[in-house]
Amino acid sequence: MLAAPKPISAVLSELTDTQRFIEELRANINQSLANMGIVAAFMCALAANVYSNPAKTRDCYGNAGYVAMIWIEWFSMGFFFLGISITVLLASDLSGVPDRLLLRHLSQSQMTMTLPSALTGLGLFCLAAGCAPPRPPQLVDAVR
């Protein structure tokens, strides 16, 4: 038996609910990308500060430790920069997708959408490794 067609008001109500959902989804993803970009930018500034103002003494690891710290901080800044760039790229990509294709586009680009978080995490790891605390003074005195 055939079902009676839905009244036009019910169809329009479903359409506006779907449209509202798509708009909220797009806004939430854009806000999440903006937040990740801001976090990556602040962390990049912190890494630049660690790079430009290193510890005055090099007692713990010597010159080789200093050079390693410089390299690690450069990697950290690079990861943060890539994270910032990809958030801008993804936000502009998301604004160009029509509403009717948004869910399909998001499901096909799940790995790409996680890149900013992964790169910011790698940058944070390198930042922490590059500005690791020095050895306690008793260990430094024992080595001398």
Share in helix: over 70%
* Low-pLDDT residue spans: none
The backbone outline, from C-alpha atoms, is rod-shaped
Give me the count of strands: 0
Mean pLDDT: 81
How would you describe this structure to a colleague?
With 144 residues, the chain is an all-alpha fold. It has one domain (8-131). The chain has helices at 8-52, 62-95, 102-108, 110-130, 137-143. The relative contact order is 0.15.
Present the secondary structure layout.
Elements: H1 8-52, H2 62-95, H3 102-108, H4 110-130, H5 137-143
Helix pairs in contact: 1-2, 1-4, 2-4
Briefly characterize the structure.
The protein is 79% helix and 0% strand. The protein is an all-alpha fold.
What tags apply to this protein structure?
144 residues; mainly alpha; 5 helices; 0% strand; rod-shaped
